[in-house]
Specification:
The complex is a heterodimer of chains A (252) and B (220).
Chain A: H1 2-19, E1 23-26, E2 29-32, E3 43-46, E4 49-52, H2 58-67, H3 109-118, H4 126-133, H5 146-155, E5 182-183, H6 204-213, H7 222-233, E6 243-244, E7 248-249
Parallel strand pairs in A: 5-6
Antiparallel strand pairs in A: 1-4, 2-3, 4-7
Helix pairs in contact in A: 6-7
Chain B: H1 2-44, E1 56-59, E2 64-66, E3 75-80, H2 87-104, E4 111-116, H3 124-133, E5 141-146, H4 151-158, E6 162-164, E7 170-172, E8 176-179, E9 185-189, H5 198-219
Parallel strand pairs in B: 3-4, 4-5
Antiparallel strand pairs in B: 1-2, 1-5, 3-8, 6-7, 8-9
The chains are: A alpha+beta (252), B alpha+beta (220).
């Protein structure tokens, strides 16, 4: 009895040590978004927040699926994820060996949202992601750097074939905002311009693609535009082999 | 320090044993309470039911309920915000028109489920006031505000998109959805002006008719 009881807390302790994904504080402040929200031309004020220093990894997502089996790939309701959900795992509770520290991919927005909620956190708003992703290792807003622009555009998403957190962190201590995977923002469904269907004749393709092109305040930021065009066209059920997520929280 | 350590070693056997038991028994107890419910729910709920979402909502009376509690009746669902002056009145009136059309044709009338995308502002008082403004009775409509920031999750299930503007208003999809009693999305209309979409009304009639014949069959 005693032996059985004692390994449970030990296991908990061990798993938190191994799986800890630390949050780093970001101060927020006035910010020029590459997306135009209404008439402000992209000028917004981002509130301070905390962000995971790296994307959620396969091992962390495995722990979540073990604790909340309704999110296993063989139990998830169809409405919450398409057929690709965690389809790269060997079995419903078995990611491929050697990939436990890779960022988790092939997760739907619903699953990402549920993961962060279960951790007492939330998905970051697009602006929070964009604010963090504007920084490089030296400055909080490196977006005027033409070399960097070209670099992050050609980096793309190589297919998630490395551990999360290996890249150099930005000034806030956040890793892998560029060059590893794309990430679900909380409000992905609200980024395109033509969400308002007062124009009833609008056809879907225009509403998604053409619609979002109209909403950019800075067309030079093509790496960001590419991301928004992709994310805003996705349904919350969609899973992709290069799309993961990280969580955010309010400042303590 | 030394005294402390002695105290610890002395008290450990007495304290650790019940604690060890609890660490095993408590989760077990909780599990035995939870598992049958979860299993039963999964078995009976279709995989494409919106009620598979675990979410908390509050109605216009201030009552807190689980999203899945809405299961059991076909419903007409839409999302609005009450400060809206343009499209939301159109949406609500269109829902009422669908109900009116069904009444005229002698069909059963499903309740309108009007969900706020602006839960911070749309308190139960505001929702009650809005309901009165449209002369909607609880038999005809329920107003809900999602809790815990789940308005986006519910909207995603319904494929309704919205974005808050600087002025506090929202750009949003205008739509009515027909849910069957188990929460499957059966039909959708984005026609908000003029007479209700006839194809949508037919779908509502079909779903309510099949629901009532099934319900009668159960009673027999």
């Amino acid at each position: 009895m005693k032996g059985k009881g004692s390994w449970i807390p030990l296991l908990c302790l061990l798993s938190t040590v191994v799986l800890a994904n630390e949050y780093v504080p970001l101060p927020g402040g006035p910010f020029h978004s590459s997306l135009r929200f209404g008439d402000n031309g992209g000028e917004v004020v981002v509130e301070g927040y905390q962000l995971m220093s790296r994307p959620v990894r396969e091992a962390e997502f495995l722990a979540f699926v073990q604790a909340y089996p309704q999110w296993r790939r063989d139990r998830i309701p169809r409405l919450f994820a398409d057929a690709g959900y965690l389809s790269h795992w060997d079995r419903p509770l078995a990611p491929r060996p050697g990939t436990l520290n890779f960022p988790v991919t092939r997760v739907s927005w619903f699953a990402a949202d549920a993961y962060c909620r279960a951790r007492g956190a939330r998905l970051p708003a697009w602006l929070e992601w964009e604010f963090a992703a504007a920084a490089d290792a030296r400055q909080t807003d490196a977006r005027d750097d033409a070399d960097r622009r070209r670099r992050i555009l050609t980096l793309g998403t190589p297919g998630a074939y490395r551990d999360a957190g290996e890249s150099m962190p930005n000034v806030y201590g956040v890793h892998d905002l560029h060059g590893l995977v794309w990430e679900w923002p909380w409000d992905h469904a609200s980024m395109m311009a033509a969400a308002d269907s007062r124009n009833v004749d609008t056809e879907n393709p225009l509403r998604y693609c053409g619609g979002s092109a109209l909403a950019f305040s800075d067309r030079r930021d093509y790496a960001v535009i590419k991301r928004v065009a992709l994310l805003s066209a996705l349904s919350a059920r969609t899973t992709l082999s290069n799309l993961g997520f990280r969580c955010a929280k309010e400042l303590p | 320090m030394k005294a402390n350590r002695e105290e610890n070693t002395q008290s450990r056997p007495a304290v650790s044993r019940p604690w060890d038991c609890l660490s095993v028994l408590l989760p077990l107890l909780v599990l035995t309470m939870l598992i049958p419910q979860a299993v039963r729910g999964e078995q009976s709920l279709p995989g494409d039911s919106v009620y598979a979402l675990s979410a908390t909502v509050q109605n216009e009376k201030g009552e807190t309920l689980q999203w899945r509690d809405l299961r059991g009746q076909p419903r007409l669902v839409s999302m609005v915000y009450t400060r809206c002056r343009m499209s939301c009145p159109l949406i609500i009136h269109q829902g009422m028109s669908v109900q009116q059309r069904l009444l005229e044709e002698g069909s059963a009338v499903p309740r309108l489920l009007i969900i706020s995308m602006d839960p911070d502002h749309d308190t139960p008082d505001v929702l009650t006031e809005t309901m009165a403004r449209y002369r909607l009775t609880p038999g005809r409509a329920t107003f809900l505000r999602p809790r815990d920031h789940q308005e986006r999750t519910i909207a995603a299930l319904l494929d309704i998109r919205f974005r808050q503007r600087d002025d506090g208003g929202f750009d949003h999809t205008n739509a009515w959805l027909l849910l069957d009693a188990d929460g499957r999305i059966v039909a959708r209309t984005e026609k908000m002006a003029g007479a209700p979409d006839p194809a949508f009304v037919r779908e509502v009639e079909a779903v309510t008719a099949s629901h009532h014949s099934k319900a009668q069959g159960d009673h027999r």
